Amino acid sequence: MLEEQFKVRFYETDALGHVNNTVVPMWIETGRLPIFEFFGEMSPETQSLIVARLEVDYLRPIFFGSNVTVKTYVSRLGGSSFDISTEIWQKDELCAKGKTVLVYFDFSEQTSIALTDGLRSRLATLTHPEHPLDA
């Protein structure tokens, strides 16, 4: 599992004093960036990862003044896609959670491509200790 802390910045808050809903997907994206390193150099001329789906559940307000912890882990491995689950915590409370479906994609052929055994093995190292990996 990956874990990163973010400082909640004042400009990320709205008129109600809590973090705007548009900020959470950006934290989710940043939390999963290390996973892209598993795939080497990616570009529209070769293979890359594309986001097929992003879900966010907002459970509690997040406020300015305390850092958030973003926990990111692989929750499902498919043939050419995989799920990244994310938890956002503040003051030991789960405030938001998300799921991103990423697809390994060949831009030149405009089709998904199978995850190699090596990629699957590396991705499987990023599971959550309390949540088993879905196959």
UniProtKB/TrEMBL annotation:
<dbReference type="InterPro" id="IPR050563">
    <property type="entry name" value="4-hydroxybenzoyl-CoA_TE"/>
</dbReference>
<dbReference type="GO" id="GO:0047617">
    <property type="term" value="F:fatty acyl-CoA hydrolase activity"/>
</dbReference>
<dbReference type="InterPro" id="IPR029069">
    <property type="entry name" value="HotDog_dom_sf"/>
</dbReference>
<protein>
    <submittedName>
        <fullName>Thioesterase</fullName>
    </submittedName>
</protein>
<comment type="similarity">
    <text>Belongs to the 4-hydroxybenzoyl-CoA thioesterase family.</text>
</comment>
<dbReference type="Pfam" id="PF13279">
    <property type="entry name" value="4HBT_2"/>
</dbReference>
<keyword id="KW-0378">Hydrolase</keyword>
